[in-house]
Amino acid sequence: MNLAILFGGKSSEHEVSLVSASSVARNLDPSKYKVIPIGISKSGKWFLQSEEELARVQNDPKAAFTINEDPSKIVSVIPGGKKDAFLVEGKSLQIDAVFGVVHGTFCEDGVMQGLLEAAEVPYVGCGVMASGLTMDKEKTKVVWKDNGLPIVPYYCFTRTDINDNKRYDALVEKVIADFGFPIFVKPCNAGSSVGASKASNAREFSMALAEAFTWDNKVLVEKAVNAREIECSVTGNSLIQNSENAFSAVRSYTPGEINPTHEFYDYDAKYNDPDGAALNIPANLDEKTAQEIKALAEKAYTVLDCSGLSRVDFFIDKDTGKIYLNEINTIPGFTSISMFPKMCEAAGLGYKDLINLLIDEAVERFNESKKLLTSR
Fold it and tell me: By Cβ atoms counted within 10 A, which residue in 140, 341, 344, 364 is the most buried?
């Protein structure tokens, strides 16, 4: 199988993607897959990367992809092209499937998925609707709440709100009156805690809103919870589970726990500070709570029509023991030491087998979709 790995992207998580994709490339079975690396620049252009660059990454366990923006290697994608959809200098790359290891906006939010759907090429992960929905933290909460799942109380600010002084002031007053301090402020459509802040007073709240609005036109404001941060991996296809194909069954894995050394698990704690957090797998949970987390993760995944993979993040209130859904990541960090694959590994699904499962599920989902009628 000719498998394209996509990495990079226009989002703030560009560099994280380079590391995740490198790990995937090193762990693909060469007897099953011919890897075709495609880097997406920060300007959004797609470039075919050389076999030498692929070999460099595959032969060095610490290497991360770089993106050579050679104008002669720009990749074009033809709608309806199927296996011939990807072209370089007018020649087909003969792509059988795509593993997009790209995080954040323009790639994790349904944009990339829509392009691949139009091209009629199988791809790993959630479809267009689920990808777009889950990228928006507010809309995700709306669906979860409508399905009776526990969420942290929140308000949503839009740029329309801040463009109207009276409307903005009234909303700020309402948030403070209802939640008090501290509160969390984060962009609705950004990942890796980019633009997220914890505000302890009105001045910090105003500054946090200003920062978040540099990243998005919608901002989520949540009541702070004195919380433990628990995560749970989920795989499978919530729409076409088939008992004959184990890889399509929705399955949750061993929960893990994040213990940040920073005030909260922010971008620096995740990526810049090597001692920013302790990652504990399994999480220190009693069996009843662990099973409740796993069941909630599967439900949260299913009601959003997810497929492929997602990491579902939770809060457990240290004071009350109450469990809250926090958010869901449909293309989580995917290095061999990232939380998503490590939680799968703790449940008996190794990294290489996980990659194979995700590709098998992607091909099955594509084949099943081709059986559906599109006209009479």
Answer: 341
3 state DSSP class of 320: coil
Percent with pLDDT over 70 in the chain? 94
Q: Do 249 and 241 contact (CB within 8 A), yes or no?
A: yes
What distance in Å separates the CA atoms of residue 172 and residue 235, rounded to the nearest whole number? 39
Strands 183-187 and 91-92, by their bridges, are: unpaired
| pLDDT value at 376 more than 50 | yes
Q: CA gyration radius for the chain?
A: 21
d(CA 113, CA 132): 9
Model confidence pLDDT, tens digit, residues 299-323: 999 999 999 999 999 999 999 999 9
Give percent helix, percent strand, percent coil of the chain, each to the nearest 5.
35, 25, 40
Q: Where are the beta strands (DSSP E) in 42-116?
A: 46-48, 75-77, 86-88, 91-92, 97-100
Per residue in 121-145, pLDDT (tens digit) is: 999 999 999 999 999 999 999 999 9
DSSP helix/strand/coil, 361: helix
